[in-house]
Amino acid sequence: MSEIVRLTLVSHAMTDAMAAGRFPLDEALNALGHRQLDGLDLGPADTALCGPETRTRETAELLGLSALVDARLADLDHGQWRGLNLDSVQPGELTRWLTEPDSCPHGGESVVALIARVRGWLADISRTPGRIVAITHPAVIRAVILNALDAPPKSFWRIDIAPASCTALHHRGMVWTLRSAVTGQ
């Protein structure tokens, strides 16, 4: 019998960019983000990981985790759109980005590239038995879910990941299984 990997993905808590509908910069959590994490108990973890951004590292710290930074858990690179409001982006470019997963009109990373990056990360951690907690971004969690379900990239925007929410998966043998998705406060 193969060993089980239990993966809990935690979406970082609220930031001012999220609240304002802006593409993210490397910002800290806001006051609401701090409150969202109150009372969230993830239990023990054999391995704790987080993305390199301030918001993921701060979420991990507030949860009492000594998380190792893993660059593969970084947010989707929004390129030249970083810090912009949605209404500051050309409507045609935004539509193309939202409907064509292999496009990246912002000059950053496409959804397809993110999904591939996350696929590699999942393959690596599937060989690490035990309980892993990873603090990351909604986009990364969407990509994990698509990989686990072998769903097409066009489904990316149909998954809603709330701030400070947890998504659980497990791996035994050859495949990842979505165990549950639990929304935070």
How does this model look, in words?
- This protein has a single domain (5-182), classed as Rossmann fold, CATH 3.40.50.
- The termini are far apart.
- The chain is α/β, with parallel strands linked by helices and 185 residues long.
- The radius of gyration is 16 Å and the shape is globular.
- The protein has a 6-stranded mixed β-sheet.
- It contains 6 helices and 6 strands.
- This is Histidine phosphatase family protein.
- InterPro entries: His_Pase_superF_clade-1, His_PPase_superfam.
Record field, number of beta strands: 6
How helical, in percent, are the residues? 25-40%
CATH homologous superfamily descriptor = Phosphoglycerate mutase-like
Based on CA inertia axes, which overall geometry fits? globular
Calculate the terminal CA-CA distance, rounded to whole Å: 37 Å
Pfam families: His_Phos_1
Protein name: Histidine phosphatase family protein
Organism: Mycolicibacterium sphagni
Keywords:
185 residues; His_Pase_superF_clade-1; alpha/beta; 6 strands; six-stranded mixed beta sheet; Rossmann fold; Histidine phosphatase family protein; His_PPase_superfam
Layout of secondary structure:
Layout: E1 5-11, H1 16-20, H2 31-36, E2 47-50, H3 54-62, E3 68-69, H4 91-99, H5 111-125, E4 130-136, H6 138-149, E5 166-172, E6 175-182
Parallel strand pairs: 1-4, 2-3, 2-4
Antiparallel strand pairs: 1-5, 5-6
Helix pairs in contact: 5-6
Pfam family, one: His_Phos_1
InterPro entries: His_Pase_superF_clade-1, His_PPase_superfam
Protein name: Histidine phosphatase family protein
